[in-house]
Amino acid sequence: MGTVAALSFRGETGDRYEVREAVAGVYDRVNAKLSAWDEDSELSRFARAKTNDLSFVSDDVRPCYECAFRLARESGNAFNPRLGATLRDLGFTRVSDVDLGAIAKGFAVDAAYDELVATGYARRPDGGALLIDLGGNLRSAAGEWRTGVRNPFAATGESAPPHAAIIVLTNGEAVATSGNYERFVEKDGIRVSHILDGRTGQPVQGIAGVTVLAESAMMADGLSTTLFVLGPKAGMEFLAKHYPGTAALWIPDNPDDPCIIATPSMRPRLLSPIFPVRH
Ligand code: AMP
Ligand code: MG
Predict the structure, then answer these.
(1) What is the pLDDT of residues 1-12, one digit of tens each?
(2) Distance of CA 222 from the midpoint of ligand 1 (Å)
(3) Which residue pairs, CB below 8 angstroms and at least 24 apart, start in 64-71?
(4) Residue 117: which pLDDT band, with cuts at 50, 70 and 90?
(5) Domains and CATH numbers, the chain
(6) Pocket test for ligand 1, best of 70, 73, 83, 251 (most atoms within 8 A of CB)
(7) pTM
């Protein structure tokens, strides 16, 4: 999936090697189906079929497609799973016109979580804790975890703190971040973000990062991308209408006067924010 996978353990966690193997097996399975870089993946074949008919889709990844197309409907295509060709024209490597890159990692994290629950690795009555992380898509499989919201401006100032705030994740909770610093290409000397407005195909400007807390990693992932495109104003209205109570924050791309814009449900979850929190 072109990103880094990590597992964190604390305390009595059982056989860490077995957990690692179980999770790696899930990622391989999901990646073989949803890769936008592999023209033989199920995703690429679905794209070539030029249809929205999900009967082409296998059962184990169906929820991912359904969620992507639902987000597209609900957001008026701000979230758009059909940006593969546009991304390719901008210089990003994609072979498939359908691109689930905005949601597939979260889906894979949930699949790993389900596997760890089913096999019993996630149950740690002895106080052990286990955190799944796939490229900034985190889910606690056991225990409480302090996670950092990356400070998007950390690279620009030498002494800048690496985290804009801390969020404590409880058992089963998921958090995802979409950032403009993660992946980009240079075009005519200008940095082009990998997140596009799905209504226009234009790279989104003005937002440095969006973080979403949700009950599943797939929803957190899909929503973080959607809210990155919508921005705080339309994004808050979108959440109130379709996902009331979901906690989200935006960090505008304004290093000279940085702030965090947070939903009411996100505000009590933020520990030690380094920027003023607004709404
Ligand atoms: P994320 O890091 O989860 O926000 O996902 C970003 C990735 O989703 C990009 O690298 C693209 O592959 C894809 N993408 C970009 N813009 C959109 C959009 N508006 N809707 C859906 N997927 C997108
Ligand atoms: Mg996403």
Answers:
(1) 888 999 999 987
(2) 9
(3) 64/34, 64/100, 64/103, 64/104, 64/107, 64/218, 65/100, 67/103, 67/107, 67/218, 67/219, 67/222, 68/100, 68/102, 68/103, 68/222, 71/103, 71/222, 71/223, 71/226
(4) very high
(5) 5-278 (3.10.520.10)
(6) 83
(7) 0.94
The two structure tokens encoding residue 158? 């030498």
Helix (H, G, I), strand (E, B) or coil at 170: coil
Tokens for 205?
Answer: 């400007």
- For residues 241 and 182, the answer to whether their CB atoms sit within 8 Å is no
Mapping DSSP to helix (H, G, I), strand (E, B) and coil, where does residue 133 land?
strand
- E strands, the chain, are 5-10, 129-134, 137-142, 145-150, 163-169, 174-179, 184-187, 190-193, 207-214, 247-252, 260-262, 270-271, 277-278
Cβ 179 under 6 angstroms from ligand 1: no
Give the Å distances, CA to CA, from 239 to 83, 111, 204, 233, 258: 23, 25, 19, 10, 23
